[in-house]
Design a protein that fits this description.
single chain; mainly alpha; elongated; about 190 residues
């Protein structure tokens, strides 16, 4: 992350973003889930892992690109959210196609997963599997991941709103460069 201020703002601090952390937890758990419940040679296995990975990678890429293009940051953050939506549908399909229950949003089990995520009370005994996907039955594993994907998607929606507000109030690199040039020349600010 750059400490410099001015025309090129600080950028690249994606590891501190809660959306990145949530997407990374989804990616790690999706790899475990797919390896356990889907044929490793299947297209679905590959697609789900890639959708989860895309969520993480696009947040990082957008954050770094924000130095010179707020438009690119907005776009890539939106792509990250869309990738997670694709993954959400895959988990819902998994449950439906196997006749397993999709937990309602207000189900006590869904609420427990959300509470555990929000309070960061995940199982610290196995850092590679903080939500117990390695040992959960298929229904619990898929529903836990649906809850986590929804948390990540919610955070990305809020991040997109914040990015939009910042862009509308501050503009992009072109506008900042123009203002800086005008300022140095002593001309009126636009």
């Amino acid at each position: 992350m750059s400490d410099r201020t001015g025309v090129i703002p600080p950028h690249g601090g994606y590891r501190r973003l809660r959306s990145f952390q949530a997407a990374q937890a989804v990616y790690d758990a999706t790899v475990v889930f797919c390896d356990r419940f889907l044929d490793r040679r299947s297209r679905t296995h590959d697609q789900m892992v890639q959708a989860a990975r895309s969520g993480v990678q696009n947040i990082a890429e957008g954050s770094v690109a924000s130095a010179t293009s707020k438009k690119t940051e907005l776009k890539l953050t939106g792509v990250a959210r869309a990738s997670l939506e694709e993954l959400l549908l895959d988990y819902e399909d998994f449950l439906r196609q196997r006749g397993l229950l999709l937990w309602p949003k207000d189900d006590p089990r869904s609420l427990a997963v959300r509470q555990r995520y929000q309070s960061d009370q995940s199982d610290k005994s196995d850092p590679s599997d903080p939500y117990g996907i390695k040992t959960a039955d298929p229904e619990r594993a898929a529903n836990t991941l649906i809850c986590l994907v929804n948390q990540a998607s919610y955070l990305l929606a809020r991040q997109l709103e914040s990015l939009e507000r910042a862009f509308l109030s501050e503009g992009g690199i072109t506008e900042r460069l123009y203002r800086e040039r005008r300022s140095r020349r002593g001309g009126p600010q636009a």
